[in-house]
Design a protein that fits this description.
The complex is a heterodimer.
Chain A (H helix, E strand, L loop, with lengths): L8 E7 L2 E9 L5 H21 L7 H6 L10 H16 L7 E2 L2 E2 L2 H17 L4 E7 L2 E5 L8 E7 L2 E11 L2 E7 L19 E8 L2 H13 L4 H6 L5 E6 L4 E5 H6 L1
Antiparallel strand pairs in A: 1-2, 2-5, 3-4, 5-6, 6-9, 7-8, 9-10, 10-11, 11-12
Helix pairs in contact in A: 1-4, 3-4, 4-5
Chain B lengths: L1 H19 L38 E2 L9 E6 L2 E3 L2 E10 L2 E9 L5 H5 L22 E3 L5 H4 L3 H9 L1
Classes of the chains: A alpha+beta, B alpha+beta.
């Protein structure tokens, strides 16, 4: 591969139990305004964490889950996230559900949605490209079509120290769902058990909110993941199966399907 | 080299298909704005050929170029359900290295979202982060607990 990435200024911080990595290049990459945009983006993520964390007993979402407050008593973002969750539940035939066993866990919606909100501050930087990753789900922008694209590596779910693919992306969003080495595991809400069939699902599209939800929903659907993704309106998707085979879903393959 | 060029045309057509598969739902018929842009070389002017004029396949390709050069292939504007979209792909060593949308519809908010996509190109062999230039990692295991040992951490450290 002959493309050499343009040197980028990098930032890393941790919030919501995940690393947030940012690469900035262009006019405001190295100056104070770029740094201020990063700080503002992190503020968004910290505010989201305070409202939506299921690990904080005093968070709005924990209190809502315990029935101590009603939806009407929550900030409007809570309704927005729950609506996204409800749409995903309906779209996935119940495999994706923010409600499980009577308790509320909207993390499958919140991660991409929050990163998309945080990226608003980066989009305001003129003549500046960015690639923002929230724990492996990312959103990129490149203003000049002749500039080199961001090179995005997709982790091999069977060996996370290796990559299964590299996708050049100028502008867009990418999310990957699967079984984390540690930490939370996705369950098929229809059975309450971890799905079988897929090792990981990567979805590429224009909205990080949408691709993150769909990657998680597809993963929860197990063996139905690739077929379900063909019905969705994304640019493309990559399903790595537990037997180490892969299925690539593109608009073209959908058109033929 | 000839084989590479053939591959390029096929790929450009596939990319055009990507955006053009569902014109029947485009709603009100819009005039197709066909812009037959000449393909232009990028990457420091390393590409030597320019070949204007579109072909009936909807793709314009560069002429001869050095093997290592990055070439761009510009497709004709395709009338998609979001309006006219024109796609340009960058190719290096017979492989797509970038996808850009030169022309995008505007009008409603939905149109503006459709700006640029990449296709996953599954590799036969896996790559290590050290063997390629990687800007960011998409993966399910990227957590704070595992971050220190992660590929993402290695990339961030290299750039910090």
């Amino acid at each position: 591969m002959m493309i050499t990435p343009v040197p980028a200024r990098r930032f890393v911080e941790h919030v919501m139990g995940m690393p947030i990595s940012l690469a900035l290049r262009g006019r405001h990459a190295a100056d104070e305004r770029g740094g201020a945009a990063w700080a503002a983006a992190m503020d968004v993520l910290r505010e989201v964490d305070e409202v939506f964390s299921t690990y904080r007993p005093d968070s709005v979402i924990s209190r809502l889950s315990r029935g101590e407050i009603s939806l009407a008593g929550c900030p409007p973002e809570v309704g927005e996230v729950l609506e996204l969750g409800e749409a995903a539940r309906a779209d996935s035939g119940g495999a994706f559900d923010v409600w499980r066993g009577g308790s509320l866990d909207p993390s499958g919606v919140v991660k991409g949605w929050a990163a998309e909100r945080a990226a608003i501050h980066l989009r305001e930087l003129p003549d500046t490209d960015f690639c923002l990753s929230a724990g492996g789900d990312l959103v990129c922008r490149t203003l000049d079509p002749d500039a080199p694209p961001w090179q995005i590596g997709i982790e091999d779910p069977h060996d996370p120290d290796r990559l299964i693919d590299v996708v050049p992306m100028h502008t867009g969003a990418m999310a990957t769902s699967g079984t984390a080495r540690r930490g939370s595991h996705i369950v098929d809400a229809r059975t309450g058990r971890p799905p079988v069939g897929s090792a990981s699902v990567t979805v590429i599209g224009s909205s990080l909110t949408a691709v993150d939800i769909d990657a998680t929903a597809a993963y929860a659907l197990g063996p139905e993941a690739a077929r379900w993704l063909r019905s969705r309106d994304h640019a493309s998707a990559l399903v790595i199966h537990t037997d180490r085979t892969a299925t690539v879903v593109t608009r073209t393959s959908r058109a033929a399907a | 080299m000839r084989r590479n060029i053939t591959c390029l045309v096929g790929t450009a057509a596939a990319v055009a298909l990507l955006f053009g598969y569902d014109t029947s739902t485009a709603g009100p018929t819009r005039p197709t704005t066909v812009i037959a842009s000449p393909a232009t070389g990028v990457a420091g002017g390393a590409a030597t050929g320019t070949a204007p004029s579109a072909t009936s396949t909807g793709a314009t390709t560069t002429g001869s170029a050095t093997q290592a050069a990055v070439k761009t292939v510009t497709g004709e504007a395709a009338d998609t359900r979001w309006g006219p979209v024109q796609v340009q792909i960058s190719v290096s060593g017979g492989r797509i290295t970038g996808v850009s949308v030169l022309q995008q519809p505007d009008g409603n908010g939905r149109d503006r979202e459709i700006n640029d996509y990449a296709l996953p190109i599954l590799k036969q062999a896996t790559l290590s982060a050290q063997s390629a230039n990687i800007d960011m990692i998409s993966g399910a295991t990227v957590t704070s607990e595992g971050y220190a040992q992660s590929l993402q951490s290695a990339i961030d450290q290299a750039g910090l």
